[in-house]
Amino acid sequence: MALNRKKIKWIVVILSSVIFLVITVCVIIVSQRDLPNDDLRKAREALSEAKEAEADVYSDTKYKQATQIYELGMKNWSRENDRFILVRDYTGVISSARKAKKIAEESKEESIAKADDLSKNVDAAFVSMEKKIELYNKLFKNLPIPKSVFDAHNKSKMFFSESKIAQGNGKLKDAEILFKKAEIYANHANTAAAKMLRDFFNDFGRWKNLANDAIAASRGGNKVILVDKVAHILYVYQSGKSIRSYDVEFGANWMARKEVAGDKATPEGNYHITSKKDGGSTAYHKAMMLDYPNGEDRVHFAQMKRQGLISRRAGIGNLIEIHGNGGRGFDWTTGCVGMRDRDIDDLFRVVGSGTRVTIVGSIEPLSTVTGGVDF
Amino acid sequence: MKSKLIIAIAAMGITVLFSSCQKVPQAEIDAATASIQEVKDAGADLYVPEAYQALVDSMKSANEKVEVAKAKWFPSYTKAKATLAYVSQAAVDTKAKSEARKVELKAETTTMIGEVKALVEENKALIAKAPRGKEGREALEAIKSDLAVAETTVTEVEGLLANGDLLGSNSKIKAAKEKATSIKAELEAAIAAKGGKK
Question: What is the pTM of this model?
Fold first, then answer.
């Protein structure tokens, strides 16, 4: 019995020592192991700083990669923690955390650099856009451009304004997106309007001949009226020199060659004043009737009809005049040449019935009209 | 007798050991996660992005605290629970901030719509008084074109607002207001210049 007690005592002592030893070894193992909490915290903070630097916008690939690696690290940490304490291995977790931190820092730097570049690009793009709008305003805004082109120009201006607001708010990516939309519309408007202007000037050779003939016809002392549609100016020539000039207005479709009645186009060619009206005989203060259509207009009209380019029922139109009631600031006539009342009073005194009236698209070439602006 | 005492002490030790091992606060984690999702659904990431990001960061910190506790011999989730409770409370505050910002944005946009409409009408009246002539014609055509843009934008903004695009409608109406205001200044300057010439 005494032996048994002694035996039990020894067994307890040995067992206790073994347990103590095992626990001590375990505690040493566990305490020697590197935990990933500091690394993951640093990775999270790096991600937070990257986000603050808008890395999710300007360096989205790297930012996403860093986020995914951080999340993977957290997942693996949780998985390791679910294992028995002595067999946990945080090496992979720590490695993920450090990698996530490194990539998050890179993404922050990349974001700052890209935002800086974008800021410069947006500034440069704004200058280019300003030039496009300026070009439109200088060359095209007074042309009777189609509604679609006009709308495109307006949309481009609106997107441009929004883009500037976004830039002001520091949202450069939004500014860039809006700017690109503005640019698409501006390019469309400018290209369409430029084509229209170039196509219009395809007739410049003919206009030049008409204008030269008109000026030559004035050399004998006769007065000749020369109307420049692009410049919106009516000149009176005598002895090869311009003795008068007046601002004029036309129909809303003044750029087009007059083809049918009601098209609001102003005809181009050589005409003559057939009669002068004033008082109750005209609703436009004073008026000078032209002999539109002339022979050339009739041939052109018949040809268009034959080719089916105009309706069979269409009429050629008539009653094209130089008249008063103008100075309205826009092209409002139905195809006539509109003048201020005081100007037509003066013109009335200067020219009489039978005076030659030559109407051309422009007396100056396109390069002069555009002031040498490349478009 | 002695061996019984040893057994009793060992049993007590084991009981204390197990009672000190707390469980992962899954209910709190789920509640905090759900509250963040709710805040996101309310558009907080768009309307109060900084507050939303702070919330997300706090949640990540709470998750880390959970794992820090889990990694210990005798886990205690007190700190993690405190952070999770903070996240749930902050989510409520962030949602409220987001809702308030939405109301503010809507009111601001609605007010600006009214202002732009009024400016458009004022500008139309000013156009009638504006000087014409050759130079005036060019300027007026440009102004009319600009005014048409501002007018079209108002209609567009009303549509965006009706569809709940509060940020888009707000930035668009700001652009329209800026345009309408600049048109007004341009017209007033032209009219003043005309008055000065007389």
Answer: 0.70
Instruction: Say how far residue A327 (Cα) sits from the centre of its chain.
Output: 32
Question: Is A37–B133 a contact, with Cβ atoms under 8 angstroms apart?
Answer: no
Residue A218 identity (one-letter amino acid) = S
Question: At residue B158, what is the residue type?
Answer: E
pLDDT at residue A3 is higher than 70: no
How do residues A231-257 score in pLDDT, each as one tens digit?
Answer: 999 999 999 999 999 999 998 889 888
- Kindly tell me if the per-residue pLDDT of B197 is higher than 70: no
CATH of domain A203-369: 2.40.440.10
Query: What is the per-residue pLDDT across B92-121, written as a single tens digit (0 to 9) for each?
Result: 999 999 999 999 999 999 999 999 999 999
Q: How far apart are CA A294 and CA A270, in angstroms?
A: 8
Residue B19 reports pLDDT greater than 50: no
Which of A77, A161, A329 faces B132 most closely, judged by CB atoms? A329
- pLDDT, chain A, mean: 91
Closest C-alpha among A187, A159, A184, A154 to residue A174: A159
Give the number of residues written for chain B: 198
- Please give, rounded to a whole number of angstroms, the shortest distance from the CA of B133 to a CA of chain A: 5
Q: A293: cis peptide before it, omega within 30°?
A: yes
How close A186 comes to chain B (CA, Å)?
A: 14
Residue of A nearest to B144 (CA): A154
Residues in chain A: 375
Chain B CB contacts of A30 below 8 Å? 73
Task: Compute the Cα dihedral for A71, A77, A82, A88 and give only its sign.
Answer: positive
- Per-residue pLDDT, averaged over A156-164, amounts to 89
The class of domain B101-191 in CATH terms is mainly alpha
Residue B196 has a pLDDT of: 47
Q: Which residues of B touch A137 (CB under 8 A)?
A: 142
Contacts of B148 in chain A (CB under 8 A): 154
| Closest C-alpha to B96, from B62, B48, B49 | B48
- Do the Cβ atoms of B61 and A88 come within 8 Å? no
- Give percent of chain B with pLDDT exceeding 90: 60
Q: Which of B3, B14, B145, B156 to mutate to test the interface with A (most CBs of A within 10 A)?
A: B145
Using CB atoms, pick whichever of B137, B140, B145 lies closest to residue A154. B145
CA dist A366 and A172 (Å) reads 39
